[in-house]
Every structure is written in structure tokens, then in C-alpha cells.
Amino acid sequence: MPSCPGALAWIPADVNESLKLILEYVETEAGKAIAWYFDHKRWKAHFSRFIQFSAVALTALGAIFPILSFILKQTGRWPNPPDSGLWSALFVGLAAALIGTDRAFGLSSGWARYVLTATSIRKALEEFRMDWILLAAAAGSSPTPDQIAALVQKARDFRVAVEGFVLQETKEWAAEFQSNVAQMEKEVKTQLDALKAQVERANQAQAAASEPGSIELSVPNADKSDGFMFEVSLEGSRGPLSRDRVNNSKKWVRINTIPGQYKLSVSAIAAGKPVAASGGVMVKPQEQAKLELPLPL
Asked: For the ranges 65-69, 170-174, 229-233, which has the lowest average pLDDT?
């Protein structure tokens, strides 16, 4: 706030003129402070109103959109509406972002502070004017030294009170600014920690998903085949992977198998005739997939 210390002067030879200069000085400085706050609150008021209106409208739209899209879809006026849940989340998210911007830059709170400070200074100015008139009327045209001192003290007290209002508003702004910065840092840290945890979980899930599993195939009637023997072929999405012969056992096991879908085929000779069976199996990470394929004897 600009000040004019040069406007203060005391003329010993003309006490009344000196008191007049003091009165003009304190009134001018108070008027400047009032004008500054009322002028600078305008842009805060415009942005605050816009943000508050937009936030309310977006929040309402987020609640109305799913209902509206459902009604229009049922009536056939909008047969293929977009995902209403995503749009609702977008509208609510934009409203939250606007409110966060308002809070971060202190638009609404600053508007309220400016109006309150300007109003308080204007009230103090009117009280000072009335008190000054009372003292000046009592002093008359030839005030005594005590009356002069009372008038000067009244002007001093008022001038200090005006600066006190300005200082208090500045302190409130500084406290709010520091609080907002601390809150933003806290929220950013929380979001970064959450993002880091999410990335770690995704990496762990990806690593777990790539862990191999195993397959256990049971052929319950393999002992009925000629020579108690059968062959197993394994196929994946890219074609045949292995072909093994099993002797004197009803089970076949394969370890270190990449997760995915596979086809198992069993073939054997029973009573001199070829028999075969096949089936699908899903291998999951770190799990054993079991399949039973009896030979069609």
C-alpha cells in the first residue's frame, strides 16, 4: 500500500492548519486502503463465483448424466450412450479440481478477507470522523495544548488501527498460504506414495504372472494299454511343444510350464488297436494344473 509520509507536517505558527493536514493525511491513507481492497477483490470475486458455479454445475451433471442417458436409451433417442459412470467420474473430478484450485490460490477466502478488511477500515474511519468532530468542537478555534494532544493522539490511534487491519489481513493471507502449501505438499506426497505402491504392486503382479506352473496328467486306465505304455503330446498357442513316452505309470508331469492354455493328447495301443484322447488345461502361475484323460478302451 503506498504511503505519503511527506504529507505529515506540523506548523507551530498555525496549529489549526497543522491539525487540518493531519486529518487529511489519515483520511487519505484510510481511503487508499479501502479503495485498494475493494478494487483488488473484484477479480477474486469473479473467479470465485465462476469456480463455485462451475463446481456445482459439474457435480449436478455428474449425478444427472447416468439417469438422463438411461432415460434417453430406453426411449430410443440415444440408443448407444457412452459409459455414464466414466462421464460422471469426469464431471465430479473436474468439480473437485476447480474447488482445489480455489482453495490453493485462496480465491474465495481472499475475496472474503478483502471485503471484511475494507469494511472494517471504513467503519473505523466513520468512527474516527465522529470522534474528531467531537474533539474539534470542544477545542474551538483556539485549542489548548491538552486538546491539541488529544486530537493528534486520536489521529495516531486511528492511523495505527488502519495499519493493524492491513497487517492482520496480511498475516491471515500468509498463514493460509503456508497452510495451503503444506497441504499441497502432503497431498502430493500421498499421491506419490500411492502411485509408487501401485507401481510396485503392478510389478509384483507382473512378476507373479510370469512365474511358471506345472501340469499333471493322469491316465487312470493306462495299465490296460499294450505294454503299459502311452504317449503324451503337449501343444501351446504356437504349436507342438513336446512329445513324451510314459512306461509303467499312469501319470505324466511337466514342470516349469509358462502360464497359458494348452492341449494334451494321449495315444496308446490297446489290444493291438490305436486309441487316443485329448483335453485342454489351463496353467496358472505357481500352480499345478491337473487333468485326467482315460483312454477310450
From this structure: 65-69
- Does the pLDDT value for residue 72 go beyond 70? yes
Q: Residue 213 in 3-state DSSP?
A: strand
Tell me the C-alpha distance between 114 and 109, whole Å. Answer: 9
Q: Output the pTM of the full model.
A: 0.58
**The three cell numbers locating residue 200:** 510396485
Residue 252 CB-density burial (10 A; 0-12 exposed, 13-18 middle, 19+ buried): buried
Helix (H, G, I), strand (E, B) or coil at 78: coil
Residue 150 pLDDT level (bands cut at 50, 70, 90)? very high
The predicted structure's pLDDT at residue 3: 44
Q: What are phi and psi of 293, to 5 degrees?
A: -130, 95
- Alpha-carbon torsion 103, 107, 113, 115, what sign? negative
| Cα–Cα distances in angstroms (integers) from residue 205 to residues 138, 194, 209, 213, in the given order | 88, 16, 6, 15
Amino acid in position 248: N
